[in-house]
Amino acid sequence: MDNNEKGSSKSNISELELFADNGDAVLDPAEASRIRKKIDYVLMPLMCTLYFIQYLDKSTLGSSSILGILTATHLDANEYNWLSTVFYLSYLVFEYPQNLALQRFPVGKWLSLNIFIWSVALCCHAACRNFRELVVVRIILGMCEGSITAGFLLVSSMFYTRNEQMLRVGYWYLMNGTAQIATGFISFGVLHIQTSGFQPWQWLMIITGILSFITAAAFWFLFPDSPTTAWFLTPEERVTAIQRVKVNQTGVGNKHFKKEQFYEAIRDPKTWGFALFSGISNVTNSISAQSPLITASFGFTYLQTSLLGIVGGLIEICTIWTGVNICARIPNSRAYIGAIYILPNIVGLLMVNLINWNDRIALLAGQYLNGLGTTSFGKVESIHR
C-alpha cells in the first residue's frame, strides 16, 4: 500500500471515529438540508443518466426489430423471442453474485466496470450475423445490467433517509420514459442513414454503445462509493451525511455477509411479497422487446412506429411523475398507489387482445396503457429499502 492509500485509509478511519464520538449530536436542520442538496447535485444527474442509458440499451433489441436485424441475422420469431428471454435469464442468474460484488467492492467502480463491459457487448451486436452470436452478447448484457438497480438502491440507502428515497427512486425511474423518447428519435434518425454495408440497426447499436462507454468513464471518476469517501464532501460534511441517515438503521457500508440477516430476510413475508410483485410486474416489462413489432402490426409504417414510441415515453413520464408526487403528499400510500397504477396494465392487455384488429387507434391506446405499470414497480423499489 502506497502513502496515498495509507493516507486515504487513515482519513476514512478518522471520519468514522469522529462519527462515533458525535453519534448522538443534534443535527442542524439547515445544515442537513444543505448537505442533502449537495448530494443531490452530484448523485441525481449521474444516477438519472445511467438509468436512461440502461433503458436505452434494453430497448435496442425491440427497436432493431423494425430496423432490419431480423433479416440481417436470419432470425425467425422464436429465435427473436429467445433473445429477449436469455437477457432476463442472465439478469436473474447473475443478480445474486452482482449483489455480493456490490457489497464487497467499491460501488462506483464496480458499476463503472459493468457499464464498460456492456458498452463493448452492445457495440458487438453490430458485428453479429446469426442467432448464436446474438445470444452470447445478450447474455453478457443481462449479466452486467443486473448490477444497476441493486447498486442504485444500495447507494440510495447510504445517502438518503427512507422518506427521501421515494422521490429519488421516482426521479431515476422517469428516465425509462425519457429513454423511450430518445430511442424513438434515434430510430427515426438511423432509418434515414444511407450507407452501404452498414444497416440502421447496426448504427443504433454503435450509437448506444458509445453513449454507454462515455457513461462508464463518468462513473469511474465521479460516482461516490459511500458517504465516507465522497469526493464532493468535506470531512465534516461526510460526518453530517452519515448522521443524516442514522434513522435508516442500515449503516453506510459493510463488507461482510451475515447469515443471520439473510435468514431474517427470507423469513419475512414482505420479502416474498416484494419478490412476487417484481416477478409478476416484469412479465409486462418483457413486452418492451415486442412493442415496436406489435405497434407495426397495427398497420403503421416503420417510420411511424419509431415516432409513436415517443408518445409512450411521454405517457410514462407523466404517470411516474404524478405517482411520485401523490405518494410524497399522502403518507404511507406507496403500496396503494402502486396497486392503482398497475390496473391500466390489465386494461391495456385486455384492449389489445379483445378489440377488433382494424381499430388501430384503440389498439395503440391499449399498447400505451401496458407501459404504465412502471410506476407501480418504482413505488415498490422505494418501499423495500
TrEMBL record:
Instruction: Give TM regions.
Output: 110-128, 135-159, 171-191, 203-223, 307-328, 335-355
Membrane topology recorded in Swiss-Prot or TrEMBL:
Multi-pass membrane protein
Quote the Pfam families the UniProt record gives.
MFS_1
Gene Ontology cellular-component terms listed: membrane
Principal subcellular localization: membrane
Write one Gene Ontology MF term. Answer: transmembrane transporter activity
The subcellular localization recorded is: Membrane
Q: Give the matching SUPFAM superfamilies.
A: MFS general substrate transporter
Keyword Membrane attached: yes
Q: Which InterPro entries match?
A: MFS, MFS_trans_sf
Q: Which UniProt keywords apply?
A: Membrane, Transmembrane, Transmembrane helix, Transport
Query: Which family, according to the similarity comment?
Result: Belongs to the major facilitator superfamily. Allantoate permease family.
Q: Specify the protein name.
A: Major facilitator superfamily domain-containing protein
**Organism of this sequence:** Lentinula lateritia
Q: Could you read off the lineage of the organism from its UniProt record?
A: Eukaryota, Fungi, Dikarya, Basidiomycota, Agaricomycotina
